Amino acid sequence: MIITFLGTGHSQGIPVIACDCPVCQSDNPLDKRLRTSVHIQHNDTSIVVDTGPDFRQQVLRENITKLDAIIYTHQHKDHIAGLDDVRSFNFKQKKPMPLYGNEDTLEQIKKDFYYAFEENKYPGVPQILLEEITKKSFNIGELKIEPIEVMHYNLPVLGFRFGDFTYITDANYISESEKLKLLNSKILVLNAIFRDEHYSHFNLDQAVKIVQEVKPEKAYFTHISHRMGLHNPVNSELPKNIELAYDGLKLEI
Ligand SMILES: [Zn+2]
Ligand SMILES: [Zn+2]
Fold it and tell me: What spacing in Å lies between the alpha carbon of 170 and ligand 1's midpoint?
């Protein structure tokens, strides 16, 4: 399995209006973050987790030319806004794209992308198939995916376990029973927004604590704000088995 981080940023860390902070002004590519998403290649199966506003740019950058499915963590705009560009895969692959998400996420997708669900569709709109994720594991190709329910303030969000790789973003709480699903991961990805406390995201200390509790071989943090500070100094102060993820980072497991 090859994991590629398509984006590792929190929306606040992606300047829309020019920002003069050291991270936004940095020349280091490790400080340039797009909205959070990850690509997973497992044998012939190619999937992405979330399609934020930067989806098109990310797919071009990583030369992803085949996509079998999209799985969604939750319905916030920074995770779904780029879905319309799935049309290109529809044209190329000549079939609808399966979208996996919980009930709330699929409902929001139906509202935001209503034109893809109309009875008489305008030609060329995205062709999508909705697949609801329940508490049970499901398969895409040969890839088995176990959903993990975490909390994002008061919103239940899905994390996913793909064999030894566990991916969680946009969480600020994981129940003890769901935490059991994280145990024995080789690689754990968790969100860490910045150093201060936040109402809906783990901060750096809280994310480190979870890693120390569930003890993966290696952990990477994602969904990082520019307020975290520069990549290199923050990264070098983390425990040995933890690193900040960055856009374009590839892992093989
Ligand atoms: Zn969110
Ligand atoms: Zn988010």
Answer: 5
Distance in angstroms (rounded) separating the CA atoms of residues 7 and 11: 11
Please measure the distance between the N-terminal and C-terminal CA atoms of the chain and give it in whole angstroms: 5
| CA neighbor of 232 nearest in space, from 40, 29, 19 | 29
> How far, in Å, is the centroid of ligand 1 from the Cα of 122?
30
Q: Which residues lie at CB < 5 A from ion ligand 1? A: 76, 170
What pTM value is reported for the model? Answer: 0.96
Distance 123 CA to ligand 2 centre (A): 31
Please report which ligand is nearest the Cα atom of 154.
Answer: 1
- Ligand 2 centroid–CA 121 distance in Å is 30
For residue 13, pLDDT beyond 70: no
Residue 112, domain CATH = 3.60.15.10
Domain span including residue 15: 2-252
Ligand showing the shortest atom-to-Cα distance for residue 222: 2
Distance 127 CA to ligand 2 centre (A): 25
Residue 163 DSSP class: T
The number of distinct structural domains making up the chain is: 1
- pLDDT tens-place string over residues 165-192: 999 999 999 999 999 999 999 999 999 9
At 163, which amino acid appears?
G
Q: Which has the closest alpha carbon to 226: 4, 2, 26, 1? A: 26
DSSP state of 9: B
Write the secondary structure of 184-233 as one string of H (helix), E (strand) and C (coil). CCCEEEEECCCCCCCCCCCCHHHHHHHHHHHCCCEEEEECECHHHCCHHH
Q: Which ligand is nearest to the CA of 35?
A: 2
CA pair distance 252, 3, nearest whole angstrom: 6
Please tell me the distance between residue 79's alpha carbon and the centre of ligand 2 in angstroms: 6
